[in-house]
Amino acid sequence: MQTNHLKRIHPNKKRMTVARGGKRGKTSGRGGKGQSARAGNKRRPEWRDIIKKLPKLRGRGVNPHKPISDKPAIVDLAMLESSFEKGHEVTPAILLEKGIVVTASGRTPAVKILGDGEITKALKISGCAASASAKAKIEKAGGSLS
Question: Whole-angstrom Cα distance, residue 27 to residue 43?
């Protein structure tokens, strides 16, 4: 055996030249001083704050301000008086054809008749809701509501 073939059982450990970082010496892997070295250092990632600021929809679909049930299209008695002749039938589909009501998301809307104005013609109204005052005026004029 020659001296150049000898090997140490425990090789030399290289000492740290600067005592920051490293293997739990001095600063215990926390680097130098500053915000990161202080107690209570829990900086949140920026994207967490962005997520927190987004509105929560809470199960109401796309628009939380839209009512759960669709409101009916409103038609006044004065409008029926001017648009229809005596004995004519009034349905939501006919009101849509005449342009008195407009489609709601491509569908024929629900219609409610309110008692604004006067009616003198007897009309056959079906498939429409009506207020109490409108119903009384329609029946007084000789019309029917079903």
Answer: 19
- Domain containing 102 — which CATH number? 3.100.10.10
Best CA proximity match to 80, nearest among 58, 108, 112, 55: 112
Q: Are residues 59 and 85 in the same domain?
A: no
Q: Is the pTM of this model over 0.70?
A: no
Tens digit of each residue's pLDDT (9 = 90 or more) over 24-49: 777 776 677 888 778 888 787 888 88
Instruction: Write phi, then psi, for 144 (nearest 5 degrees).
Output: -130, 150
Using CB atoms within 10 Å of the CB of residue 138, give its burial: 0 to 12 exposed, 13 to 18 middle, 19+ buried: buried
Distance (Å, whole) CA 92 – CA 127: 7
Residue 90 has which token pair?
Answer: 């009034």
